[in-house]
């Protein structure tokens, strides 16, 4: 069972019906095991994908925001080279985990992403993209 909880001053507040029902089953004195996994930062996620959408509509090379996302990760150095037992080495981009980034880490990645996005578009789109900063 997974619970979706929000930390508030008085403790934790369940955020959906399933979590409410589950927390009502926990009796005073019961001990439970909790594995903490923060949710994706919606604010960071929304800002980044809005930037990528602006790029999509201001260039002709990439056909989707997912393609632009992969290009940004590659250009930003978020990749590793895999050397198979047979065949040529190949590159795989790494996952960007916004939920593990604090505001400083996100802004650092985001500023690099903006620089890359400016390179992916024409001069007329630069002003529109920079407004996301």
- Give the domain tally: 2
Shape: elongated
Per DSSP, what share of the residues sits in E-state strands of 2 or more residues? 5-15%
State the helicity in percent bands: 40-55%
DSSP helical segment count: 5
What average pLDDT do the residues reach?
85
Give the biggest sheet.
2 strands, antiparallel
End-to-end separation in angstroms reads: 39 Å
Low-confidence sequence ranges:
none
Q: Numbering strands along the chain, what is their spatial order in the largest sheet?
A: 1-2
**Rg from C-alpha positions?**
21 Å
Structural class: alpha+beta
- The total beta strand count reads 4
The helix/strand order is EEHHHEEHH
Keywords:
single chain; 133 residues; alpha+beta; 2 domains; two-stranded antiparallel ribbon; two-stranded antiparallel sheet; 4 strands
Summarize the structure in words.
The chain has 133 residues and is of the alpha+beta class. The protein has 2 domains: 1-37, no CATH class; 42-130, no CATH class. Helix content is 46%, strand content 12%. The chain contains 5 helices and 4 strands. Strands 1-2 form a two-stranded antiparallel sheet. The protein has a two-stranded antiparallel ribbon with strand order 3-4. A hairpin with a 2-residue loop joins strand 1 and strand 2. Helix 2 (42-56) runs parallel beside helix 4 (103-120). The model has no long low-confidence stretch (mean pLDDT 85).
List the helices and strands and how they pair.
Blueprint lengths: L4 E4 L2 E4 L2 H9 L16 H15 L8 H11 L3 E4 L7 E4 L9 H18 L2 H8 L3
Antiparallel strand pairs: 1-2, 3-4
């Amino acid at each position: 069972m997974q619970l979706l909880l929000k930390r508030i001053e008085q403790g934790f507040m369940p955020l959906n019906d399933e979590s409410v029902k589950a927390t009502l089953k926990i009796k005073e004195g019961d001990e439970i095991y909790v594995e903490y996994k923060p949710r994706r930062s919606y604010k960071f996620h929304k800002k980044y994908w809005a930037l990528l959408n602006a790029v999509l509509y201001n260039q002709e090379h990439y056909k989707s925001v997912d393609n632009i996302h992969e290009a940004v990760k590659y250009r930003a150095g978020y990749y590793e080279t895999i050397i198979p037992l047979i065949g040529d080495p190949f590159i795989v981009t790494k996952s960007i985990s916004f939920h593990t980034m604090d505001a400083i880490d996100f802004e650092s990645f985001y500023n690099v992403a903006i620089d890359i996005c400016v390179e992916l578009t024409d001069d007329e789109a630069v002003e529109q993209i920079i407004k996301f900063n």
